[in-house]
Amino acid sequence: MNCFKYPLFMPMLDLDELEQLDQNVGLFSVNRFNWAQLKRSDYLKQSSQPELKDAVREQLKLLTGYECDGKILMLGQLRYLGVYFSPINCFYCYSSSGQLMYVLAEVSNTPWLKTHYYAVPCQQKDVRQPKAFHVSPFMELNMDYQWRIKTPHQKLLLHIENHDRQGKIFDATLAMIQNPLNSRTLFGVLLKTPIITISIMVKIYWQALKLWVKKVPYVPYTTHSGAKNVE
Fold first, then answer.
1. Residue of 70, 108, 111 whose CA lies nearest to 86
2. What is the enclosing helix (H) or strand (E) of 12?
3. 19-67 pLDDT, tens digit each
4. In terms of domain of life, where is this protein from (predicted)?
5. What is the pTM assigned to this prediction?
6. Euclidean distance between CA atoms 132 and 144, whole angstroms
């Protein structure tokens, strides 16, 4: 058994408020260099839509047929001092009446630099979907994901399990507490972890090394139709 727990911060941005955040939050900018930068080309690279919200709506409709007519919140990593890395970005897609309808998960794998999208309906408590994308070199492709997503308010919970024929073999939980995004709070977290993208990458490789030392079988990368090359 291999268990670990790390502190983490992730911004959650309303994609309708990017211009306002760009103007009002120090150390943050959109499509221009800053300590924390949202660069449009880091997300949904296959889309020709210039606006990130439109690209999310387009991808969600492609996967589900649903046309999102409400707000979209992005929970994910930014560029920090020009360095971008994010294993998963989650786009919380709401209806015009304020109901959370879907989470569009943009999943990237390391070190193959490919990405895949899962559209998770949020009107069910637990959603089970077949795994369609090779992520970890220590887990087979032939298994299911089970998602548990709660509508974020003061707290956020995102729970994912991997199930094979024998049952659950892996789970990951993201549990977060809301803090306001302003110049003061952003400076505070950046002061503690100046480039969190590098920190995340180091921790991923450290856990992989521990599994390798434990002689967990290596599963080579398998190309399949679900993967998108983003190089």
1. 108
2. strand 12-14
3. 999 999 999 999 999 999 999 999 999 999 999 999 999 999 999 999 9
4. Bacteria
5. 0.90
6. 9
